[in-house]
Amino acid sequence: MKCYLAIQKNNGKGVIVVSEIKIAILGVGNCASSLLQGIEKYSKNQKNAIGLMHHDLGGYKCKDIKVVAAFDIDKRKVGKPLKEAIFAKPNCTTIFHKDLPNYPVTVQMGHVLDGVSEHMKDYDDDERFIVADEEPCDVVKVLKESGAEILINYLPVGSENAAKFYAEKCLEAGVGFINAMPVFIASDQEWAKKFEEKNIPIIGDDVKSQLGATIVHRVLTKLFENRGVILDHTYQLNFGGNTDFLNMLNHSRLTSKKKSKTQSVQAELEKPLSAKDIHIGPSDYVPFLNDNKICYIRMEGRGYGNVPLNLELKLSVEDAPNSGGVMIDAIRCMKLALDRKIGGILYSISAYTMKSPPQQYTDSVAKNMVEEFIEGRRER
User: pTM of the entire structure?
Assistant: First the structure.
């Protein structure tokens, strides 16, 4: 097994420093807002890192992450300074750190493609996307001129063509790709081969929250399996009031999302449930909930003596912050891969942070794999 070390250098004063991590953001929505708020919060108060899985990851801390480019299609964000755009409508997530810097970043007009569902035009402006009347930018040029090393894909669910378009632009620009939404790119063999051939790292697909519906459902499913309880039926219903749930009222956009969440839970079972015995997916849009997400899980099984048992759980979380800490780890692991000249799929961090990684592992195994990767004892 090869051993890798993060690229570090001495600053001439006997202090070891690491290079900056230059990221670009695709979709300046709630998740981007929480990510940037968290980066600034933890950068200024490094001793109080509640909510981070790793304060220091391979020598990299939150303060090392720098945003150098951003793309969106909403007229309230395009052409605006990032600091302003991050709090513009229809964003509705909790503001837990207002003191953001004056980023030297203006939000660029992206390519709409299939990123906006037609049904959104029937809703109030504050709830929906409003496409800017601007020509899309040259994505590759922006990525190259900004010096971006990593692009984070926060496009809406169902943006299949758009996600693939930007993945291709990352290949052209030589930029790492973190696919936080449910379009199968890292877990698609043809796409994986493209990133492998160009030695560009990719993490995906579909970000798994820190303590969200999928991770909780997975843990409970594994608990049934480990304790000898047969799981006969289960469902997971979710609803919330952000643009993600409004977007998903168009059920034609949900194919990949439902598949991603379902296979993530099924992966914990030695024998997967039949399609009629498992139902996982978004349920409805409730505007006054804003970024709060409500999840109901029910599990029906049989234990000792073939005696039935039922488990029901309600989870209430602020949706966007729930993935922020996970993404901060994914960013830093990708930076380690870039430092070590590793391209292609990053299997360990994909399995730990994504619902549909190229290869599924239990969460405890994936966590150990990530620690080995950070220490340089695992290539990917």
Answer: 0.93
Tracing tokens 């991603």 back to the chain, one arrives at 260
DSSP secondary structure string for all residues of 321-373: HHHHHHHHHHHHHHHHHHHTT--EE-HHHHHHHBSS-SS---HHHHHHHHHHH
Percentages helix, strand, coil for the chain (3-state, rounded to 5) are 40, 20, 40
Asked if the model's pLDDT at residue 11 lies above 70, the reply is no
CB of 302 closer than 8 Å to CB of 310: no
The structure tokens listed for 120 are 């959104």
Cα distances (angstroms) measured from residue 339 to each of 149, 201, 224, 375 = 11, 11, 41, 13
Q: Could you read off the pLDDT of 85-134 as tens digits, one per residue?
A: 999 999 999 999 999 999 999 999 999 999 999 999 999 999 999 999 99
State the Cα–Cα distance between residues 258 and 261, nearest whole angstrom: 5
What is residue 81's predicted lDDT score, i.e. its pLDDT? Answer: 98
Upper half-sphere CA count for residue 108 (Cβ side, 13 Å)? 21
Of 318, 336, 355, the domain-final residue? 318
pLDDT of the residue at 46: 66
**DSSP-derived 3-state class of residue 217:** helix
Query: Is residue 207 a contact partner of residue 355, using CB atoms and an 8 Å limit?
Result: yes
Beta-bridge partner residues of 278: 234
The CA–CA distances, whole Å, from 293 to 169, 244, 285, 299 equal 32, 10, 10, 20
Report yes or no: 139 and 166 within 8 Å, Cβ to Cβ: yes
Give the three-class secondary structure for 282. strand
The answer to whether residue 2 is domain-embedded is: no
Q: Confirm whether 362 is domain-assigned.
A: yes
153 and 83 both lie in a single domain: yes
Tell how strand 8-10 and strand 150-153 pair up.
Answer: unpaired
In a domain, 189, yes or no: yes
Q: What is the CATH number of the domain that holds 287?
A: 3.30.360.10
Dist CA 127 CA 243 (whole Å): 6
Where in the sequence is the domain holding 228, given as residue range(s)?
213-318
Predicted confidence (pLDDT) per residue in 322-353, tens digit: 999 999 999 999 999 999 999 999 999 999 99
Based on the fold, state whether residues 222 and 205 are members of the same structural domain: no
